[in-house]
Amino acid sequence: MRVPLSWLREYVEVPADATPEDVLEALVRVGFEEEDVHRFELQGPIVVGEVLEFVEEPQSNGKTIRWCQVRVAPDGETAADGGDAVHGIVCGARNFFAGDKVVVTLPGAVLPGPFPIAARKTYGHVSDGMIASAKELGLGDEHSGILRLVELGIDAPVGTDAIELLGLDDVAVDINVTPDRGYALSVRGVAREYSHATGAAFRDPGDRPWGEVGHATDAFTSVVADEAPIRGRVGASEFVTRIVRDVDPTKPTPAWMVARLSLAGIRSLGILIDITNYVMVELGQPLHGYDLDKLQGGITVRRAMPGEKLQTLDGKVRDLNPEDLLITDESGPIGLAGVMGGGATEMSGATRNVLIEAATFDTVSIARTARRHKLPSEASRRFERGVDPLIPFVAAQRAVELMVEYAGGTDAREGGALMTEYEFPGIELPFGFVEGLIGVDYTRDEVVGSLELIGCSVHEREGDFVVFPPSWRPDLTDKWTLAEEVARIEGYHRIPSVLPTPPSGRGLTPAQQGRRRVANALAAAGLVETPSFGFTTDELNDLHGSASGEKLPSVKLANPLDGQSPFLRRSLVPGLLQVAHRNVARGLTDLALFETGVVFLPQPGVAYGTAHVPPLAVRPDAATLAELDASIPPQHRHVAVLLAGSAVAKQPGVAPVTAELAHAVDAVRTIAAAAGVVIDVAQGQRAALHPGRTGVLSVSGTEVGYVGELLPAVAEASDLPGRVIVAELDLDLVLSLAGEKVVAASLSGYPAATQDVSLVVGAEVPAAEVRATLAEGAGELLESLRLVDDYRGPGVAEAAKSLTFALRFRAPDRTLTAAEATEAKMAGVAAAAERFGATLRE
Description:
The chain is an alpha+beta fold and 842 residues long. The protein has six domains: 2-40 and 170-198, Phenylalanyl-tRNA Synthetase, Chain B, domain 1 (2-Layer Sandwich), CATH 3.30.56; 46-165, CATH 2.40.50.140; 210-418, Phenylalanyl-trna Synthetase, Chain B, domain 3 (Phenylalanyl-tRNA Synthetase, Chain B, domain 3, 3-Layer(bba) Sandwich); 427-491, 2-Layer Sandwich (Phenylalanyl-tRNA Synthetase, Chain B, domain 1); 510-612 and 621-738, Bira Bifunctional Protein, Domain 2 (BirA Bifunctional Protein, domain 2, 2-Layer Sandwich), CATH 3.30.930.10; 753-840, 2-Layer Sandwich (Alpha-Beta Plaits). The chain contains 23 helices and 42 strands. It is elongated and about 120 Å long. 39% of the residues are buried.
């Protein structure tokens, strides 16, 4: 919310010497976040000048310029730039006349851009300054001609400082307004908050006698016919109309109003629209103006009918939804209530009679309509946060008065009104509750004083407070929000910083400890953790979320953040591929990534998300909790790894090493060591992975994941060059197989006996199965068994391969002899020969 300080000073006593930073500091003290300071980016000398005479001079390029003599200081005085009182200035515009008062930027001035002004030779003359347009001064988009002060109703002496005259010396403070504090989207609201922060006197522009704003002849019919309310709430609870006749839409908007709207972030669109925007920013009540002569009959507020369309003010024709709340007349829809008006009844340069609408619309209805049509507006921004239901009459009358004063209209005291009798229920606030919640020993007077300061009415009843919030604070709904207000008004600095003492005997669960060990181990191994969103497409779920790529059920979100990725992920790999693509696109090609996160694995034939949601104020019973749990799909925590580019970068004395399957298997073993399990790798297949470079991971015979190289086509689909290796494990399952404790292996003090063996087996036999058989046959003396070579070539049959294993034997109670180690090795060889037909390689 951007608030010009001159506007703020109208309703609260801001010291004359207060800087924008001082105002922001005060607002921060009552809970607002500082955003920025906005100024008109210009500096003087910029003065009022009078065109004495000019000569039109056609140029060879077809353009005609005017060589003007402009008085910029009274006779006998020196101009603001130190020059003569009369300056010669070249001007290309032709919309002014001799005797006109204009705005002159003298040498040394700077216009927005920045655009410095200096005397320079052009078109055969030395132009000693520039006659400015509204756009060049930052007052609007009008650039077809220069700014004539007579059009603004200004007649100031020559030489007057135009910056101050036009309000260009004003400055606006910008604060972030949270969704629950919509009242602060107005000068009225911010002025009140500044008063709370500083104690400065506040004058409420919304506090006007009922006789000034409420009386009007019911000469215009308005009907609310909402037959499909949302949450049982009718779409419009207040609907006020006022009529202003005989307006002149060609009258200029006062310069001070244009300057204030510009600083507030709203461009000038003509006096009628500017007035409705001005009142909206001032009071926080959105208004809409209709060309009364274009309306057909009275106004009806209703929901849209099937097939209805509306052309909004932005020129787009919109298909309406039955939930959309509309403003209609006898011709049909003429506006999206609280969001944007329709083009058929908009005010224009031909408008003579204006109907002003000020309403209170349901917050949910407006928010849904604005999002459904992707049509955020200043009006919807305020309505969806909640507008003071007692301000529409004041706002409508304020707009009428401004149109009478500045657009030449007549207030005929005509209009209509639909009103709802508002009841503001009291909130029970027990004595001592605020002190116990906030942790500050507030006195009773401080609690009552803080609540009354923000507009609440506080009564004492049966030993407790009963608090009635003001109409502009719909966010005050319970004792907790009231306590927050006391803390905010009394000052957050009073809240002590006390480190809570955790109860003894609690800490991380074994599963949490295991997940943390795995993540730390992968990070220590050089991988980078990259959390990603849990949303993906149905196609990627099928490709990476199942072994064979078959269609499996996925959970589709009813209201996804991204319409192109509405499904909850079955695998972590799609997220890692997105991260890898983003990094490669930014020149980071050597990647070692990992992620731990939840995947969602719904069971076929089970409907999820169908449980009844219980009220939040009461703890659900066991049966309700069981129903809620059953409506949630199974969620498993996985860990996934992605490698691409170089595992070892090229450097002096070191050749580059491309990331391969073996590096991913090393990452899997890192996970296994951290989890306290032994993971076996066996050849396998998976839809997204290379058929000859895919491994199935298992712990004690239970499959826990996979590792492999992505198919080139899959990698190319993510714009990833070269080989991409991935691995994914069900981390919850791995940790459950490890048990609650990781037992360290005991160390023997006796020497080991090492032996090697080379076995020739068929090329199709998985090396992991040969290794497992060899280990099983070798018995308990075998301490370690590693595959060190896989040879295929001369000396080995074409359909065979030679697998060389390094074996290490050790006994816990004695030194092994070579014969004992050989006997154990040959027992393993015999087992491999029996199962696979393995033979010793000569």
